[in-house]
Amino acid sequence: LKCGIYFHTVSGLTYKARKELHKAARRFMEMSSRLLLESLDEHFSHVDADPHEVALWVLLKRTQSTDKSTRLQAVQELADNHHWHDYQYQTAAQVLDQRTAVGLARTSHVDLRFFLPPPPLPDLEDGGLWCFGGNGLPYAQSLTSVPSEKVESFCLQALVQHSKVQSHCDHIVANGGLQLLQRVYQIRRDSLKIQRNIVRIIGNLALNESVHHAIAQSGWVSLLAEMMQSPHVMHASHAARALANLDRETVEEKYQDGIYILHPQTRGNQPIKADVLFIHGILGAAFKTWRQKDRNILDDGKEEESKDNYTECWPKSWLAADCPNLRVLSVEYDSHLSDWMAKCPAENQRKSLAYRSQELLKKLKLAGVGERPVIWVAHSMGGLLVKKMLLDASDNPEMNGLLKNTKGIMFYSVPHRGTSMAEYSVNVRYLLFPSIEVRELCKDSPALRNLNENFLNMAKEKEFKVLSFAETLPTNIGPMIKTLVVPTHSASM
Predict the structure, then answer these.
(1) What is the rounded CA–CA span in Å between residue 373 and residue 117?
(2) Nearest CA among 266, 311, 307 for reference residue 287
(3) 55, 185, 324, 333: least surrounded by Cβ within 10 Å?
(4) What is the pTM of this model?
(5) Euclidean distance between CA atoms 487 and 414, whole angstroms
(6) Residues 188-214: tens digit of each pLDDT
(7) Is the distance from CB of 468 to CB of 491 less than 8 angstroms?
(8) Where is 466: in which H helix or E strand?
(9) Strand order of the sheet with strand 259-263?
(10) Is 426 within 8 Å of 442 (Cβ atoms)?
(11) What does the radius of gyration of the chain's CA atoms come to, in whole angstroms?
């Protein structure tokens, strides 16, 4: 404490030091309560306290202002000032309201001491997701050799689907799901996949403003703030989506499941001038599709040499650095070569291009896509999906903004005319049960031909700028097959 007395002893504080410390702490808290009760326009020159103490409480008071710009500035100044002492961070953490805590969590490089640790959870003899269903899961586990972590992962995948339904969200929260998910999060600190699925659920729950208070009260803001600073791109991006959905102070958009913000992931002062959307293809994903070639971890010398030039997701690392005024979004959806790979057989009917197009258009509209210039970057089947979405948008008056603001499209190895790989799968359909996605990619498919012709007509009319890239080197498909998945003639429109 800045009371003019500093004690440095080897064995700890003496009785006199402790007495002075308690006196200073009482004085500080009394002053704090007075400052918080005074109006913002009052001067604090009459307060007998260190200027740093006054500055902290003035900022905390301003975070509760009725003026939005004052609140935002106060949050930024709180995060930018690195002169606070431990006790000041702890005191601030005690009085931060939910809105301010979320704002700090979405501030770049914020000090994590601003956040209270999650409240303690009751001790249980057993941990894990079986808390949701009494003792049924341990009994089920006794009948199988499947590791508990695998079982928990399956349960979490089911909860991800449930958390997309508002009525189910209310049920999850009402039955202590936020606390139980936190328990699993703490138990499985060594499993990045489980932690990401848990935060994915929190991000889905956060779409419902009615549960924001419950999310904050259960200690999730501090965990999300910590996760935002993770070196893992996927980890930080999942946390960024959840916090953006919680931040109703500066974010009007809502990011549904599968829509990830690669940039900007924190609050910033730069205006966003355009949106760039990345759409992956079959067997791709929102992050792994846009990484560099996997590094050989056995080659320590080369890895050390190239680590500064390596990125797990180049749109986030490089595009955002070159063009900071862009909002960079990555879209994820399940895609499989075979129906055997589908997570749920009931989902098979929802995998056609037509269904996915309508589903993603709704998500993108909620995310505010179409309100400013848009550039699409699509790989493989993702390019077909982009063409279908734009055609569907042309038939929907509510999506006129998306069509009008589309300025350019980049196609990476998109099978505009189909691919022989799809034919290969169809020829052995009784073995592979090719999924709807694969059946739609058959070479010279009438549906693909119509899609391409209709899109070309629209692109000419709307004067879209289109750039296509084709494969020139074969790709390894498993240990035995090496082929051009999308040859040049198919990648050309």
Answers:
(1) 41
(2) 311
(3) 324
(4) 0.81
(5) 9
(6) 888 999 999 999 999 999 999 999 999
(7) yes
(8) strand 465-469
(9) 259-263, 326-331, 274-279, 374-379, 406-412, 465-469
(10) yes
(11) 27
Structure tokens at 101: 């805590």
- With a pLDDT cut of 70, the percent of the chain lying above it is 68
Task: Round to the nearest angstrom and report the end-to-end CA distance of the chain.
Answer: 70
User: pLDDT tens digits for 91-142?
Assistant: 899 999 999 999 999 999 999 999 999 888 766 554 444 444 444 445 455 5
Q: At what angle do helices 446-462 and 381-394 cross, to 10 degrees?
A: 60
Which of 355, 356, 383, 365 shows the shortest CA–CA distance to 468? Answer: 383
CB count, 10 Å around CB of 391?
Answer: 17
Residue type, 151: V
Phi-psi region of 43 (alpha: psi -120 to 50; beta: other; left: phi over 0): beta
Highest mean pLDDT among 51-60, 180-189, 362-371, 445-454: 362-371
Residue 132 is classified by DSSP as G
**CB contact at 8 A, 254 and 367:** yes
